[in-house]
């Protein structure tokens, strides 16, 4: 491996993790069985190192106006101590990135996808007015994700009571004796938390959460969980050539909030209709949708799979596909081009999985 390493790299190696390159980072793909790690997330709690993601701070001047002008969501309506999932779009409506913005005392924090860290920072700086400071704080903190129905209990065992923290809320807490910032967000479809830890103390917090019962989990289990919950992955399900309405994220767009980058283009899409749509697919026997596979209906290619995997929890192949608008409605049977021949799949309503213990909501990967 030759990529960048998080402060928890020694812990991953000591635990026997299989390391892979992800967006230029050496990251744990799995520690043991992906099935067991996913089971831990769905039944207890899994612990992920997501320190590769970018973490920015916006302060000075009118940071709110900057974020309001580049994000699709209404950040000015966000109360202090709350977070918002939103998108940054180009002038033509293409998605620059999806992110979570947090309103903190005295300023704003933004968490972005690892692969887009430099691009997003440059985008924000380019749109910032004089006096607004956009700083990359990624090296100063580590970011841990504790996800699953036992996450709140395990966090309490490590010294932090998050009982009163609302979904998409954020607050300062002490975890394992370390001052941290905790948000009730995640990317697995379960209740859970993301813990911002001073970089030099990440090992202490990681060890305390593992001691409390959290199962270390890698990127493979995280990807299966997020796909079951139909949470989009930037670079696969969306990119600069797709717009929010095509990928089912039109709910993040507040056209009535005033001007922002991409508003005119998105307003046209809203009025004229989308050209493509993101659909959910459940494979038939021995059919596992794979990224890039052609999707056909009645012998005609209507699009391609954007994300696909085998769900151990659901016991079947599942996938997302970007297809021609209105080409395939829920209940339709389509054909997926596989290496060993065509497979059959059914178009289903999303998400594939919904936890009984939490409301469906969206963070990032």
Number of helices: 8
CATH superfamily of the largest domain: Probable tRNA modification gtpase trme, domain 1
Q: Class of the largest domain, according to the CATH hierarchy?
A: Alpha Beta
Q: Given the C-alpha coordinates, what overall shape results?
A: globular
Uncertain stretches: 359-365
CATH topology of the largest domain: Gyrase A, domain 2
What profile does the largest beta sheet have? 6 strands, mixed
Mean pLDDT: 95
Give the amount of beta strand, in percent: 25-35%
Would you mind describing this structure in some detail?
- The protein contains eight helices and 19 strands.
- The longest helix is centred in the middle third of the chain and has 11 residues, at 117-127.
- With 365 residues, it is of the alpha+beta class.
- Strands 10-11-12-9-3-13 form a six-stranded mixed sheet. Strands 14-17-16-15-18-19 form a six-stranded antiparallel barrel. Strands 5-6-7-4-8 form a five-stranded antiparallel sheet, with helices on one face.
- The protein folds into two domains: 1-233, Gyrase A, domain 2 (2-Layer Sandwich), CATH 3.30.1360; 275-348, Elongation Factor Tu (Ef-tu), domain 3 (Beta Barrel), CATH 2.40.30.110.
What layout of secondary structure does this protein have?
Elements: H1 9-14, E1 18-22, E2 25-30, H2 34-43, E3 46-49, E4 54-59, H3 63-70, E5 83-89, E6 95-104, E7 107-112, H4 117-127, E8 133-136, E9 141-147, H5 151-157, E10 170-175, E11 178-183, E12 192-198, H6 202-211, E13 215-216, H7 219-228, H8 263-272, E14 276-283, E15 294-297, E16 300-311, E17 316-324, E18 333-338, E19 341-348
Parallel strand pairs: 3-13
Antiparallel strand pairs: 1-2, 3-9, 4-7, 4-8, 5-6, 6-7, 9-12, 10-11, 11-12, 14-17, 14-19, 15-16, 15-18, 16-17, 18-19
Helix pairs in contact: 2-7
């Amino acid at each position: 491996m030759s990529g960048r390493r998080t402060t928890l790299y020694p812990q991953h190696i000591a635990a026997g993790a299989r390391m892979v390159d992800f967006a230029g980072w050496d990251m744990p793909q799995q520690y043991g069985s992906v099935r067991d790690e996913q089971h831990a997330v769905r039944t207890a709690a899994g612990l992920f190192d997501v320190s590769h993601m970018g973490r920015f701070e916006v302060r000075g001047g009118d940071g709110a106006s900057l974020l309001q002008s580049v994000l699709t969501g209404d950040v000015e309506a966000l109360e202090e101590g709350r977070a918002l999932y939103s998108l940054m779009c180009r002038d033509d409506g293409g998605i620059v990135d999806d992110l979570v913005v947090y309103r903190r005392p005295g300023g704003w924090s933004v968490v972005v996808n690892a692969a887009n860290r430099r691009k997003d920072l440059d985008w924000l700086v380019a749109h910032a007015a004089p006096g607004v400071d956009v700083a990359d704080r990624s090296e100063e903190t580590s970011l841990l994700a504790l996800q699953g129905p036992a996450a709140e209990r395990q966090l309490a065992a490590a010294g932090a009571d998050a009982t009163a923290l609302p979904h998409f809320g954020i607050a300062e807490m002490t975890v394992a004796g370390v001052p941290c910032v905790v948000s009730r967000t995640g990317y697995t479809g379960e209740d859970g938390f993301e813990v911002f830890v001073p970089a030099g103390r990440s090992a202490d917090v990681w060890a305390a959460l593992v001691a409390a019962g959290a199962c270390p989990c890698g990127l493979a289990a995280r990807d299966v969980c997020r796909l079951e919950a139909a949470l989009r992955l930037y670079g696969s399900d969306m990119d600069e050539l797709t717009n929010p309405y095509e990928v089912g994220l039109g709910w993040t767009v507040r056209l009535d909030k005033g001007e922002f980058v991409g508003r005119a283009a998105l307003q046209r899409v809203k009025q004229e209709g989308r050209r493509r749509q993101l659909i959910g697919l459940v494979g038939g026997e021995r059919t596992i949708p794979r990224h890039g596979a052609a999707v056909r209906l009645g012998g005609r290619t209507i699009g391609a799979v954007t994300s696909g995997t085998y769900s151990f929890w659901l016991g079947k192949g599942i996938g997302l596909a970007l297809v021609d608008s209105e080409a395939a409605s829920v209940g339709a049977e389509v054909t997926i081009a596989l290496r060993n021949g065509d497979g059959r799949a059914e178009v289903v309503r999303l998400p594939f999985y919904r936890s009984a213990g939490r409301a469906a909501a969206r963070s990032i990967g």
